[in-house]
Design brief:
Strand order of the largest sheet: 1-2-8-5-3
Largest sheet: 5 strands, mixed
GO cellular component, one term: membrane
Shape: globular
Oligomer: single chain
Low-confidence stretches: 1-11
Pfam family, one: p450
CATH architecture: Orthogonal Bundle
Keywords: Heme, Iron, Membrane, Metal-binding, Monooxygenase, Oxidoreductase, Transmembrane, Transmembrane helix
Subcellular location: Membrane
Radius of gyration: 25 Å
Number of domains: 1
Number of strands: 12
Pathway: Secondary metabolite biosynthesis; terpenoid biosynthesis
CATH superfamily: Cytochrome P450
Strand content: 5-15%
Bound molecules: protoporphyrin IX containing FE
Number of helices: 24
CATH class: Mainly Alpha
Distance between the termini: 89 Å
CATH topology: Cytochrome p450
Mean pLDDT: 90
Structural class: alpha+beta
C-alpha cells in the first residue's frame, strides 16, 4: 500500500521521548502565555491584595492551601491579614480570587447563570461518573433543574423521618461491633481501649445510603467493607484521600486544556483512571438493574420514590438514564461527607466529657417521649458547631461564564490604595468560595469565630436575624447554596442526629489531651481526619461501653 507522506516531514528521525518533551514544553508554554494574557486583561483582580508573594510559579498558593496539614493553616491567617476577599495564585501563576465575604459569597452561589463549576471539571465528572449526574451538569441548564426538581420531593422532612428506624438499626450494628472489639481488647489485657472510628463510620454511612437511597444492603458494617460496589466506591474514596504536588499540577493543566486533548487523557492507562472507569461501569450496571427490580426499588427508597412519581409526570419527565445516573452521584456526594462530619463531632465530644454527659442526659431523658431529634437542644448545638468548623467541603470553585460585578459587604482597600465597594470580574475568572473561611469569618460570627463553642447556638449569639442568610441550614455555608445547594442536607442532619444519639447512649468517647498532636486534618475531596504520624485517614479514640444502670444516673 502506498504510504501517505506529509509535504514536510520535519519530525522525521526525532526520538519519541524528545517529541514527548517538546510537546509538553510547547503545551505548558502556550498555556502560561494564555494565563498571562488573561491576567493582563484583569487589572481589577491584579490590584487585589493577597499572599501572592509566597506563591510558587508551578503550584501557585495551592500547596499551602491543599498540601499542608491541618487544613486552613495558611488560609485562616490569610483571611485575618487580607480580609474576606483576596487574590491567590493557581498553577502557572494564574490569578484566582478567594472569597469569604458574605455579600460576595451569596452573590456567587446564587447567580447560577454567571457562576458555575469550571467547564473542564464538569467534563471530567461527566466522563468518569456518567453524563447525567447532578454534579456533572451545568447549573443554569434545563436538565439540572428538571433532575433537581424531581429529586427534591424525596428529601422532605416527613419522608426522611421514615428512614430513622433503618438508620438506628445500622448504628446499633456498629455499636455491637465496637463493643465486641472493646471486649476482645480488654481480654487481651488492654487497659485503655482505643478504636479507629473512621472506618466504621464510613461503613455506617454506606449502609444507610445503600438501604434508604436504593434499597440495597451493602452490609458494610457487618462485613467490614461491604460488597463489590461498596468496596469499589471505597477504592475511589481512597484514591482521592491524598493530594500530591504532581496532582496539583495535573489539576492545573487540565483546567484549561482543549476538550480533544482532555478526552484522550481520560483514556490513559493509569491506575486512577482505571479505578474510576471501573466504578462508573459497575455503578451504571448496578443502578440500571436496581431501577428494573420492582422488589428492591420500592417507593420507600429515594430512587424508587422518584422513579414512581416520574411515571405519572406529564411535564418535565426524566429519562431512565437521568434517574439511574443519580445513584452513583448520591453515593459519592452523600456518604463520605456525612461520615467525616460524624467523626469530627465525636472528636469534639471526646474532648469535652462534661458536655458529652450533658448531651447523653438530654438524649436519655427524651427517649420514649414524643419529642423529635430536632428538639434536642444540646445535641443540635453540637452538630451545628461541628458543621460550622469542620465543613466537609471547605471550599468550592466557580468560574464566571460572563462579566459580572461582585458586591462586597465591606469596603476593600486594593494594593494601589483604592477603596472599592464592588469588584468587576471578567468572563473566565476563577473564584474560590471559602466555605470554611466564611464559617469562621469574625465579621459574621464574632471575635471568637474560630473557637469551638456549641453554646453560641443557645445563647443568642447566632440569632438568625443578625446573620447574612447563606445556605439552607443555620446560615452556614457548609451545604453551599443557590441552585447547587446540597440535595441531601436534611438527610445528612437527620442521619447525624440519629447515629450520634444512638452511639452516645451506648458508648463513652474519650480523648487524651496528650493525643492532640496526633490528630490533624486534610482536604482531599472532603475534610478528612488524619493520623499526623502515619499520614493515613483515621481517627483513634479511647472508648468505653456504658452499662444500662449507668444511664439511670443521668
Ligand atoms: C454533612 C454532610 C454533607 C455536606 C457537608 C454536603 C455538602 C455539599 C456541598 C458543599 C455541595 C455543593 C458543592 C458546591 O457548591 O460546589 C453538595 C452538593 C450535593 N450534595 Fe451534599 N453534603 C452532605 C451530605 C449529602 C447527602 C447525605 C447527600 C445525599 C443523600 C448529598 C447529596 C448532594 C448532591 C446530589 C449534591 C449535588 C447538588 C447539585 O449539584 O445540584 N449530600 N453537598
Amino acid at each position: 500500500m502506498k504510504q501517505i507522506v506529509l509535504p514536510f516531514d520535519f519530525l522525521n528521525g526525532i526520538h519519541p521521548w524528545a517529541l514527548a518533551i517538546l510537546t509538553v514544553v510547547v503545551l505548558v508554554g502556550t498555556y502560561s502565555l494564555v494565563i498571562h494574557w488573561f491576567s493582563r486583561r484583569n487589572p481589577h483582580i491584579r490590584d487585589i491584595q493577597g499572599p501572592v508573594d509566597s506563591a510558587s510559579w508551578l503550584y501557585g498558593n495551592f500547596h499551602q492551601l491543599y498540601l499542608v496539614q491541618p487544613y486552613g493553616k495558611f488560609e485562616y491567617p490569610w483571611q485575618e491579614k487580607y480580609g474576606s476577599v483576596y487574590r491567590i495564585k493557581g498553577c502557572f501563576s494564574e490569578d484566582l480570587l478567594f472569597i469569604s465575604d458574605p455579600a460576595a459569597v451569596r452573590y456567587v452561589l446564587n447567580d447560577a447563570r454567571t457562576f458555575d463549576y469550571p467547564p473542564n471539571r464538569m467534563f471530567i465528572a461527566m466522563s468518569l461518573f456518567g453524563g447525567k449526574g447532578l454534579l456533572a451538569l451545568r447549573m443554569g441548564g434545563d436538565t439540572h433543574r428538571r433532575i433537581k426538581n424531581a429529586f427534591s420531593p424525596a428529601f422532605t422532612l416527613a419522608r426522611l423521618q421514615s428512614y430513622i428506624p433503618t438508620m438506628r438499626d445500622i448504628a446499633r450494628k456498629a455499636i455491637d461491633k465496637l463493643t465486641q472489639e472493646y471486649l476482645e481488647k480488654c481480654e487481651q489485657g488492654d487497659s485503655n481501649v482505643t478504636v479507629d472510628i473512621f472506618q466504621i463510620l464510613q461503613n455506617v454511612t454506606s449502609d444507610i445510603i445503600g438501604e434508604t437511597g436504593f434499597g440495597h444492603k451493602f452490609n458494610a458494617v457487618e462485613t467490614d467493607g461491604g460488597d463489590e460496589i461498596a468496596r469499589t466506591h471505597q477504592n475511589v474514596i481512597s484514591l482521592g484521600s491524598s493530594r500530591t504536588k504532581s496532582g496539583l499540577v495535573a489539576d492545573g493543566v487540565t483546567r484549561h486544556l482543549p476538550r480533544i486533548i482532555l478526552s484522550s487523557m481520560l483514556y490513559l492507562p493509569t491506575e486512577t483512571i482505571k479505578t474510576l472507569h471501573n466504578f462508573q461501569k459497575l455503578t451504571q450496571k448496578w443502578s440500571a438493574a436496581l431501577l428494573r427490580d420492582d422488589e428492591m426499588c420500592t417507593d420507600a427508597t429515594i430512587v424508587g420514590f422518584v422513579a414512581s412519581a416520574n411515571k405519572n409526570q406529564k411535564r418535565d419527565q426524566l429519562s431512565f438514564d437521568e434517574i439511574s445516573a443519580q445513584t452513583p452521584t448520591l453515593l459519592a456526594a452523600g456518604q463520605e461527607t456525612t461520615s467525616n462530619t460524624l467523626c469530627w463531632a465525636l472528636y469534639e465530644l471526646a474532648k469535652r466529657p462534661t458536655w458529652q454527659d450533658q448531651i447523653r442526659k438530654e438524649i436519655n431523658e427524651a427517649q420514649g417521649s414524643e419529642s423529635s431529634l430536632d428538639q434536642l437542644e444540646y445535641l443540635n448545638a453540637h452538630i451545628r458547631e461541628t458543621l460550622r468548623l469542620y465543613a466537609a467541603v471547605p471550599n468550592t470553585e466557580r468560574v464566571a461564564f460572563e462579566d459580572a460585578i461582585l458586591p462586597l459587604s465591606q469596603p476593600l482597600t486594593t494594593a494601589s490604595g483604592r477603596v472599592i465597594t464592588q469588584l468587576p470580574i471578567r468572563k473566565g475568572q476563577s473564584v474560590f468560595v471559602g466555605i470554611a473561611s466564611y464559617n469562621r469569618n469574625p465579621q459574621v460570627w464574632g471575635p471568637d469565630a474560630d473557637v469551638f463553642d456549641p453554646l453560641r447556638w443557645l445563647d443568642g449569639r447566632c440569632d438568625s436575624e443578625s446573620l447574612p442568610g447563606i445556605g439552607p441550614y443555620s446560615n452556614l455555608a457548609t451545604f453551599s447554596g443557590g441552585a447547587r445547594v446540597c440535595l441531601g442536607w436534611r438527610f445528612a442532619i437527620i442521619e447525624i442526629q440519629t447515629v450520634l444519639s444512638e452511639l452516645l447512649t451506648k458508648l463513652r468517647f474519650k480523648f487524651d489531651p496528650d493525643q492532640e498532636d496526633e490528630v490533624t486534618s486534610r482536604y482531599a475531596v472532603t475534610l478528612l481526619p488524619v493520623d499526623a504520624r502515619s499520614g493515613k485517614s483515621s481517627l483513634r479514640l479511647p472508648l468505653q461501653p456504658i452499662q444500662p444502670h449507668e444511664l439511670d444516673d443521668y
